[in-house]
Write a structure and sequence with these properties.
Blueprint (H helix, E strand, L loop, with lengths): L7 E5 L3 E10 L2 E11 L5 E2 L2 E2 L2 H14 L6 E6 L4 E9 L3 H12 L10 E11 L4 E10 H13 L3 E7 H13 L6 E7 L4 E7 L2 E8 L3 H12 L3 H8 L12 H27 L5 E7 L6 H11 L3 E3 L6 E2 L7 H18 L7
Parallel strand pairs: 1-6, 3-16, 6-10, 11-14, 14-15
Antiparallel strand pairs: 1-2, 2-3, 4-5, 7-9, 8-9, 11-12, 12-13
Helix pairs in contact: 1-3, 4-9, 5-6, 5-7, 7-8
The structure holds adenosine-5'-triphosphate and magnesium ion.
Length: about 350
């Protein structure tokens, strides 16, 4: 059997591009590269690539400064151009499903069926009831093609296009194991998008993307304190090396925005609860750069009544202390979550 190798994980987020490379080691996986490079604002808006040359440039910088030779990459997309839905269908074989999915999918997708790529995964079959549940994934061809082109322009060979929520689930399983008999929520709060992924007994049963994130915090601090975006960003992150005093209003603004973000997340969780017989969520795992805001996790926990824990995507991945400062890895963990999930994909499993 041909031995496969890990793909380079390339997470093109709206505020920064992240790369992660893993390799098999004696006991599990080892970290070879993790790095990120910022993107100018407006380079990506609601998942759409508005300024692809900046993105190509960021990828090139990352490849060069980390001396990355691997060309095969795994990419991911999220946002409103991606639809993920659990749908009930009459019981059928895999072949029958493949033939009918295009037609079945039509009624669940708000886009022209010819404009989307479709993928489907059988969640469960119930021969007694003559029913089955499948997870339908549809993504706009335009957007996928744009992401693939950007990677190709940077000299890379895209092998996989994944969805952020599924990357998070893979990353979670490798680090925390498959959680049976429980429902957990994986929450990635980035700069512009919140991905909510409800995983019940180890299977994704509900996902939703909300157009909110760290940008709201920065914009609100900027507006209420009447300062520049850059100053607001520094205050949001708890200051910089200059030891300048952070005005106490900043925490108040962070709390206000956290309340509204938590409220929006809760609306989705309430919707999920109303549409399933699930007995309840046992824990929320938080990732994404905005997940680093301590009061946000506390407020989400208070609003939902569920414990919230910050994810560590390097929990079971070994890293050389000399190459990766453990403190750096701990602080960057939330930002790295999606790219670690992508870096788990292998050439021999495609
Ligand atoms: N220590 C920190 N404290 C507060 N906010 C932070 C911190 N570190 C990063 N952020 C914020 O996290 C966001 C970036 O996170 P991330 O890299 O996960 O987003 P992204 O993937 O670029 O965006 P998206 O997934 O929404 O397209 C930015 O809004 C940034 O200001
Ligand atoms: Mg992201």
């Amino acid at each position: 059997m041909a031995k496969g190798k890990n793909l380079l994980g390339l997470d093109i987020g709206s505020s920064a591009v992240k790369v992660c490379l893993l390799k098999p080691v004696r006991k599990g996986l080892g970290l070879v590269v993790f790095d990120h490079h910022p993107l100018p604002p407006e380079a990506i808006v609601d998942g759409a690539l508005m300024d692809s040359s900046s993105v190509v440039d960021a990828i090139n910088q990352l490849l060069k400064r980390n001396k990355i030779r691997v060309k095969e990459v795994a990419l991911s997309v999220s946002g409103h151009s991606v639809i993920i839905k659990k749908i009930p269908l009459p019981l059928m074989t895999d072949e029958e499903l493949e033939q009918s999915i295009q037609w079945e999918a039509e009624q669940y997708i708000p886009f022209d069926i010819n404009d989307v790529y479709i993928d489907v995964d059988v969640l469960s079959r119930d021969p007694g009831q003559g029913q089955m549940d499948v997870l339908l994934v549809a993504a706009k061809k335009d957007m996928i093609n744009d992401y693939v082109s950007v990677a190709k322009e940077a000299g890379l060979d895209p092998r996989v296009v994944d969805v952020d929520s599924f990357c998070l689930q893979n990353m979670f399983e490798v680090n925390y194991g498959k959680v049976e008999d429980q429902t957990i929520v994986l929450l990635d709060i980035g700069a512009g998008t919140i991905n909510i992924n409800v995983v019940s007994n180890g299977v994704t049963t509900f996902t939703r993307d909300i157009s909110m994130g760290g940008n709201q915090f920065t914009e609100e601090i900027q507006k209420q304190l009447n300062i520049t975006y850059e100053e607001a960003e520094t205050y949001k992150r708890g200051g910089d090396a200059t030891d300048a005093v952070i005005p106490h209003e900043v925490e108040k603004v962070i709390q206000q925005v956290s309340e509204s973000v938590a409220g929006e997340i809760q609306r989705s969780l309430d919707f999920y609860a109303a549409t399933t017989a699930d007995s309840g969520i046992s824990r929320i795992y938080l990732s994404g750069g905005t997940g680093s805001i301590p009061s946000l996790g506390r407020i989400i926990s208070r609003t939902s009544g569920v414990p919230v824990e910050l994810i560590n995507p390097f929990r079971t991945i070994s890293a050389d202390d000399g190459k990766f400062n453990p403190q750096f890895l701990e602080s960057i963990g939330p930002v790295a979550a999606v790219s670690v999930g992508l870096a788990l994909r292998r050439t021999n499993e495609l």
